[in-house]
Specification:
single chain, about 140 residues, mainly beta, Immunoglobulin-like, 4-stranded antiparallel β-sheet, 2 helices, 7 strands, about 35% strand, rod-shaped, disordered N terminus
């Protein structure tokens, strides 16, 4: 359940559209493995040319646009009975953790699912140092 639908009546048609529309609410999963942070976004009907993945100043941004139908579909003699599929621009941003290798990000897209892989730097564990306790004679 989205935050929006928990705040408002989920029977509201607008809220239903927000929850279903990838332009308004692009669903993204973020998982962390031992070697990388992996972002998976559902972008049905979009091609890789419609999507942009950018990394800048520790911020991962996924954006794009679902374009209006072809010119033939917008002719005056066409009669639309229902338009429910969302069109327009979308953008999602994620602050990357300090261990992200921002210069080695890779992205792939298959069947409308975008996968962005951000490798992790190996975090050096602090060394354990035993301190010898001196005896003070007084």
């Amino acid at each position: 359940m989205s935050i929006i639908s928990s705040l408002f009546n989920s029977e509201d048609p607008f809220i239903s559209m927000v929850n279903m529309c990838p332009v308004l609410s692009t669903p993204v999963d973020w998982k962390e493995t031992t070697k990388a942070h992996v972002f998976v976004a559902d972008l049905p009907g979009l091609k890789k040319e419609d999507v942009k993945v950018e990394v800048s100043d520790g911020l991962l941004q996924i954006s794009g646009e679902r374009k209006v139908e072809e010119e033939d579909d917008r002719k005056e003699d066409n009669k639309w009975h229902r338009v429910e599929r969302c069109r327009g621009k979308f953008s999602r941003s994620f602050r990357l953790p300090d261990n992200a290798k921002a210069d080695e990000v890779k992205a792939s897209m298959e069947n409308g699912v975008l996968t962005v892989t951000v490798p992790k730097q190996e975090v050096k564990k602090p060394e354990k140092k035993v301190i010898e306790i001196e005896e003070i004679k007084g």
